[in-house]
Amino acid sequence: MTDDRNGVRIGQAVRDLDGRPLGRVDALYEWGFRVVKGFPILFRQEQVLRYDEVRGERGGALVVARSEAALLQLAAGEIPDIWRVPTPHAFPAAATPSEARDLFEGLAGARAASAAPRPGVPEPQSLPAADERDYVRSRGESFPAGPPPQP
Q1: What residues contact 134, with CB distance under 8 A and at least 6 apart?
Q2: Where in this protein does the record put region Disordered (predicted)?
Q3: Cα 91 from chain centre
Q4: Is the distance from CB of 15 to CB of 21 less than 8 angstroms?
Q5: Interior angle at CA 149, CA 31 and CA 29, nearest 5
Q6: What are the C-alpha distances in Å from 129 to residues 40, 57, 140?
Q7: Do strands 13-15 and 4-5 pair parallel, antiparallel, or not at all (unpaired)?
Q8: Distances (CA, A) of 83 to 56, 67, 93, 107, 142
Q9: For residue 20, with 0-12 CB atoms within 10 Å meaning exposed, 13-18 middle and 19 or more buried, which class applies?
Q10: Fewer CB atoms inside 10 A, N or C side of the chain?
Q11: Residues in Cβ contact with 14 at an 8 Å cutoff, skipping those fewer than 6 apart
């Protein structure tokens, strides 16, 4: 089995959106990864997360779309704030991470299809390949000033 998949490495620390440690990556699967915290016999906690829940990397630790506040909102029968996405009118305003990804891909596809070149309007410049990879790796999140994060 490989030690790296979809930017997730075995042994990598994992934190939730609130900054709380969830544990370390213990196993990689085709669709997700297992996070383990605690001793093998006592106080052991295991979680399985999907790759689309990863929101970025800070300080070498993965940040995932999990939050204690979201669990409390779900328990109260509400839609968690982290599931809410900005959308045009008539689109759903809340989505799971995978539904949001599909929605954004659909919106981007519609935008690309409707973008016909207009006379006198310059074509947008694309990012250099290295910058585009950095942007995709960051999933659009902003990072503190300094050098870009390394994979």
Answers
A1: 148, 149
A2: 106-151
A3: 21
A4: yes
A5: 15
A6: 43, 20, 15
A7: unpaired
A8: 16, 11, 8, 17, 19
A9: exposed
A10: N
A11: 21, 22, 23, 24, 25, 35, 49, 61, 62, 64
- Residue 80 zone, left/alpha/beta (φ > 0; ψ -120 to 50; rest): beta
Q: Where are the alpha helices (DSSP H) in the chain?
A: 68-75, 97-114, 129-138
Asked whether 103 and 97 are in contact (CB, 8 A), the reply is no
At 134, list the tokens: 């950095």
Partners of 83 in the β-ladder: none
pLDDT digits (tens), the chain, 151 positions: 557 777 899 999 999 988 899 999 999 998 899 999 988 777 888 889 888 888 888 888 999 888 888 878 888 888 877 777 666 666 666 666 777 777 677 766 665 555 555 565 555 555 566 666 665 565 544 444 455 555 5
